[in-house]
Amino acid sequence: MKLVANDLTLERGGQSVLKNVDTEFPPGTITAIVGPNGAGKSSLLLALAGLLEPVSGTVELDGERLSELPPLERAKTLGYLPQHTEIAWDVAVENVVALGRLPHRDRGTAEIETAIAALTLEPLRHRPARQLSGGEQARVLLARVLAGEPRWILADEPLAALDLAHQLSLVSHLQNCAHSGQGVVIVLHDLALAMNHADNAVVLHEGKCAASGPVEDALSSETIRSCWGVDAQWIGDRGSRALIIEH
Amino acid sequence: MNRAAVVFALLLAALVPLSLLAGRVWIDPATTPNAAIILMELRLPRAVLAIAVGAGLGAAGAAMQGYLRNPLADPGLFGIAPMAALGAVASFWFGALLPPAIAAWSLPAFALIGAGLAMALLALIAGRTSSGAGGGIALFTLAGLMIASLAGSLTALAITLAPNPFALSEIVLWLNGALTDRSWREVAIAAPLTGAGIVVLILASRSLDALTLGEDAARSLGIDPRRLLGLLIVGVGLTVGAGVAVAGIIGFVGLIVPHLVRPLTDRLPSSLIVPSALAGACLVLIADSSVRVLPLITELRLGIALSLIGAPFFLWLLLRMRSGSL
Fold first, then answer.
1. Which CATH number fits domain B3-322: 1.20.1080.10, 1.10.3470.10, 2.60.40.1220, 3.40.50.20?
2. Which residues of A touch B220 (CB under 8 A)?
3. Closest by alpha carbon to A214, among A195, A231, A232?
4. ipTM higher than the 0.85 cut
5. Cα A112 to Cα A118: distance, rounded to the nearest angstrom
6. Residues A78, B220: C-beta atoms closer than 8 Å
7. Where are the domains of chain B?
8. Contact A89 B262 (CB under 8 A)
9. What is the pLDDT, as a whole number, of residue B326?
């Protein structure tokens, strides 16, 4: 059950943002989409979530075109976490999480409780979500996605604006999801986070796929030089690598 | 039915008999002459009308605030009420040209046509702006504001060109909104349309909940933005259009009521629509009964009374928002 982008070309506001990208995302792993600013990362994620109609090419799930799935089916299968979510009202944490059940048209009490427990939100459940700190809100919003029990989790920069401890805790939740068989695709800015915590990477540069595959290969020094224009070397061992910039 | 709905339903049940008895003449059913006629032909239709108009405005306000994710949104933002008012003002000009049998209905009919035109225009604009590329809601709201502004200027033009002082005062008075001298005829127009509009808004309520997390998240939850916008245009069009057709412009109800209701609920838009309808009914019923009782030479217009309450409330709201407690 793969999520596949076939010869995908995307436009936003009349501007071309992605040109003829072919790539696939295996389930049960974390794939990081990385690339310099404006490379088309968020657009690719939106298209994978079925929220941005391709100009040409297709996104396919199990060999079926995403655009042909009914919206509710798509919503049950693909959980999408936008980059910035401003929660509009003083809605309690548990009710925000419950919104994840909307596509299922049920109360889903068990799934909501599981998501609340997984992200240790029990002590916060009655608090208005938008009054929480950035790290707490990020957990609430991820729990909202988890409550829908999607087969795929597509998250746009879920770690941005989180401190180190919260980044690690969120990453470990995503790793648990991948271990349990869900496909996880995340847009990341921080190459070290991608290198240490993702299984695969797709590197976008100026709307094209510059490299893809296991992180060790996709995030090579050569790729970093050609895409970011920076000379850099990885040091350390797998799982705790750091990127050293050379002057 | 949630707690807020129960609270406001009980309040409404208590207010109706009070409002029937209150007025320039306080009715004592045992002694007041013609009590039955006053009640059945004057007070009861007026009370039912107040309930219908208030319920429509309350529900529309709750839906609009949910749709725009903004506590300061108001049903007037779509431009439906000003267009309905423009239609009504046009009837002062053209109504006299119609055969007498139709002329009696010309004002509500013209107002409903105005509301219908606004809805059609909004649907046309929606078809062009909600392409799913984001920014649709903001663009659409601006378009609604432009319709409102255009209708407002045309109404002002109609007033300045009024054929005679009598017509002028008639138009201005009518624009201020009132339920004076209404009958079952107006109830027959407003109640079914408002009821249908509220049902349409209830159909939109789960989608409005999803919008709490923003447009992209809502779409990822399977919400169809075009369907939601369509439901909103029809729901707000029916409730607000019907209200203006029978009562003129009555402001602030749609803005205030959701704020009175919200603290009693879980604050999701879907929990607000029915209680806001009931609370809107209470508010207009109280205001209309109060203007009847106030010892003034002529009855204070309902629209003016509600604006007198509404404007200070709006200010208080703004100050509270600044202090971050909204």
1. 1.10.3470.10
2. 49-51, 75, 78-80, 82
3. A195
4. yes
5. 10
6. yes
7. 3-322
8. yes
9. 53
